[in-house]
Amino acid sequence: MKGVEIFIRGTVQGVGFRPFIYNLARQHGLSGTVCNTGDGVAIHTSCSKEELEAFIGAVRSKAPPLSRIQSIEHGPKEIEIEDGRFTISKSSGTSSADASIPPDIALCADCLSEMQDPNDPRFAYPFINCTNCGPRFTIVEKIPYDRQQTSMKVFPMCEACTRDYEDPGNRRFHAQPNACPLCGPQVSWHDQAGNKIETKSPLTDTAVALAANKLVAIRGLGGFHLSCNALEEKAVAQLRERKRRPHKPLAIMVQSIDIAKKYCFISEQEIALLSSIEHPIVLLQKRPDTDLAQGLAPHITELGIMLAYTPLHHLLFQESTCPQALVMTSGNSSGTPICTGNAEAIDRLGPIVDNFLLHNRDIVTRIDDSVTRVSGKKPLILRRARGYVPSPIHCKWTLPATIGCGGGLKSTFCLGKKNSLFTSQHIGDLSNLESYDFFQESIEHLKKVFDIEPEIAVCDLHPDYLSTHYAKALGIPLYQVQHHHAHATAVMAEHGLKDPVIAIILDGTGYGDDGTSWGGEILQADLTSFTRLAHLSHLRLPGGDKAATEPWRMGISALHSLYGDGLSDKNIPTALRQIERDKREPLLSMLNNNFNSPLTSSCGRLFDTVSSLLGICQKMSYEGQAAMELEDRARRCLNSTWKNDLISEDYDQFPFLLDDRGITWEINSLQLIKTVLDDIQMGKKTPEIALRFHLLLIKNITALTLQLCTQTGLNQVVLSGGCMQNAIILEGLRHTMATHNISVFTGENIPINDGGISLGQTITGGLQHVSRNSHEGNQGRG
Amino acid sequence: LDHGSGGLASQELIENLFIKHLDNPILRNLEDSAILENKPGNIAFTTDSYVVDPLFFPGGDIGKLAVHGTINDLAMRGAEPQGLSLGLILEEGFSLDELERVIISVAEACREADVYVVTGDTKVVPRGKADKIFINTAGVGIVDPKLQISSKKARAGDSIILSGSMGDHGITIMSKQAGIAIDGNLRSDTMALHKMVAKLLAELPAGSIHTLRDPTRGGVATTLNEIAGNSKLEIELIEESLPIRANVRAACEMLGLDPLYLANEGKCLIIVSPEQTELALQILHKTKEGQEAVVIGSLKEGKAGRVLVTTPIGGARVVTPLHGEPLPRIC
Ligand SMILES: [Fe+3]
Ligand SMILES: [Mg+2]
Ligand SMILES: [Zn+2]
Ligand SMILES: [Zn+2]
């Protein structure tokens, strides 16, 4: 008969979409069918135009919480329907990039209350889930997303579970990981060597061990956590020593917002972010005088907190002996990817932990916890992983099948096709073999999951990134995108900006198109090209990358640039006089001989320099340490009106320089550093100097940007790069730009650090390919 | 030294210098080419040019490098060196005293190696067209046709022996360039390895040695990447076993350099079958050149062309070949 087909694209599978349609159609008195296809969800029905509009309106407004509708199309179709009935029919078709699988979602309120009800069949069951919550991406082997294609395939459902699974009116209708204590996965308790310890309640034993300051490896959703009591200095110190992670802040987990409030100041937006369906780690300002161990985040008042997100976490916190706050850090040894398999974890983590809490549901895809923060009342994703991946970013432009291979350290990759950009989870430092293997395995897995076979590859300009080596070896057309251009276009893609913008990229290091090292850049950028308008004036990196981990080198380097031969103990600040002469002298000699001391316009190294001169950090044990500790000092004297001071107060603004060729503007970094030195001489307090440096930098960048906006006639500004993770800088620049009526855009769903590079590459390389091909096509015809 | 038409006098001076220091029956003929005795075997033939700043450094100078480098290139194919050529390009104004020091050094290196300069040439170019002195040496050797030593011959399971400590030459030069004070023990390792190689080939069962390479420019890392690429195998190095002197390590730390990428001028990588590894080490330890030889890793099936270093903690890292200067990459 003649009817209509309604086709819905987006994240519409594995989120309870078909039962929703089933129930909605019945409410609207429609008969017909609904089914999953490779591309989305198809509904066949027969109704009037008015009925159709009302139905589609209801689909949009009432869609299930985890679904994301990208488009709804409809058109006439020859259909077969059983009169008077609406049914769910079998899936059809193969996978395609359009039918996204959803990410892993935190335990929902309904499941939580069932789990706490002694009369419920899933009472105290650590793997309870439904269509609104639970594992997805981490258990999927391929699509269509179906139990037989997940790691749940080895757990045949019991009768009761099968009934729930097949009942369209049930919250567990087609919930692929559906399980109960009778038929599903189980937890078990093990000693350090991995031997199983017989016990009535593995969770009670875990809680007791944690309360006794033991270190426990807990198998979770996307991998293992290393956990210990966050309230005990001894426990935290032991974890740091065993994991060889002396200073890097450790994230903690608590059970509820109320408990989180005991430890941190939390705004409305931050509460919303903590308790969003993704349950990411949120960076919050720590309260003074809490009973948390000081060792969680040495020298830093910011703390990463997340709420319990799996039923297992909730059950653990419900144990009466369990500490109220637990360290939950990635279960790996320093620098390697998070462990996923039981045997692998016992092998690698055994030497670190006292016990294991294991389970027998395989983790197909490893994924870390996501890290976020609220800035300017908006959430920013700093590490995009659990809860967000693999949700695509949709863009307005049509891309060929493209792979963006990302950067070097905080690497991710991105697969793009048509209007969708799928950015991988955080992968880490590729120079580590296991991370590099993880990178390659994940590419193969996601290619399969999204049915994308890249036709072109895009990578950085840096010849020594392993991602560059990887891309070059693929043997498909290759595009190389400048690092900071990619930082800019990632943000442009996210916000659909096509017209040229002014991009302020404050970053660590990126290979410039002139072969030098860039990092504090103002570009005029569009999606496929850019011009370098301005940058921070050059600093020298004595020892190359060594200078990026040892700020004292940057301190000496700056003094050398400022004073040259006139450098004496008199003008070396106290903090650096403590560096032994037998290290200082050779460094000066390297600078004098211009030996392995490349020039850089890096903003990160400018922060390191100031951090060193102020004696805050001379040697880093984790990336970004010096800059983070500097920001933290500045924050200590931040008052409520600082943003207004930024506008009104008359901070020195230094004259801008023109570079040798008279084309590119430079912000005088040495002058900024000189101000810091003068302040030290005057005996000002460290937090005050640190803040003044931040404000001066904002002031100078703002002044130059305004000048460039006038010069180019542009009034849209993009803010990106690793240093924009500094909340003072980001909020300060947002504020000054807004005051001058300039529209500001920054990465919200895509990290502004190197985690966002792959997306920028994909959009830029992809569109360069499109325009080159259409150009060649035209030439061919002409 | 001057240059140009009036240079005849200085040309004579130079020739006198050569004869005085490098004298041997073949060179003495001063004919257009040297005639070498025909010996059974195949001919190995190699050439290399030497430019180094500074010219003189602890442990050696450009003259020694030029002799040792070419001898070692012959030795790395298992050849017995028969004679060298010596080509000099001198910058106008280069001091005769320094030139004589270089020539004396070449002569000493030849005597010690028992391999002689049999033909030579000198040109003087205007100031600024060269930097003091450039040397080219070529060498001819004889090799047993049954020997099949090549980086393509490495097999899965083979051991990788390094004949001594790593980076000594590179760090000595780099420290000089950086102007940092050199610890007294820091010196170039430049030496000829053909006698050690000959001993190894003579005393090991035939066919035990699959590959010989001298890790000069680009260091052990770059050479091993070539071996891994040519043999289509994966190389795994054990970090703790890498022989690096404490002073070399400290200087690398200061200068921000990685010893794996530093040039060596008196070391070789020996790829040997696993069964003969112990014996090879015993033989090496009895030689002056190889007394500190150690196994640093092995070859295996795996990802073709990849070189890994395994560390005691934190797993393994990939060692990529380097083209040119290391560039900052920490973001
Ligand atoms: Fe970056
Ligand atoms: Mg050569
Ligand atoms: Zn649920
Ligand atoms: Zn069941």
TrEMBL record, chain A:
Its EC number is 6.2.-.-. It catalyses: an acyl phosphate + H2O = a carboxylate + phosphate + H(+); C-terminal L-cysteinyl-[HypE protein] + carbamoyl phosphate + ATP + H2O = C-terminal S-carboxamide-L-cysteinyl-[HypE protein] + AMP + phosphate + diphosphate + H(+). InterPro entries: Acylphosphatase-like_dom, Acylphosphatase-like_dom_sf, Acylphosphatase_CS, ATPase_NBD, Carbamoyltrans_HypF-like, Carbamoyltransferase_HypF, DHBP_synth_RibB-like_a/b_dom, HypF_C. The keyword Ribosomal protein does not apply. GO terms for molecular function: acylphosphatase activity; carboxyl- or carbamoyltransferase activity; double-stranded RNA binding; ligase activity; zinc ion binding. GO terms for biological process: protein maturation. It comes from the Bacteria. Coiled coil: none annotated. PANTHER family: CARBAMOYLTRANSFERASE (PTHR42959), CARBAMOYLTRANSFERASE HYPF (PTHR42959:SF1). This is Carbamoyltransferase. It comes from Desulfotalea psychrophila (strain LSv54 / DSM 12343).
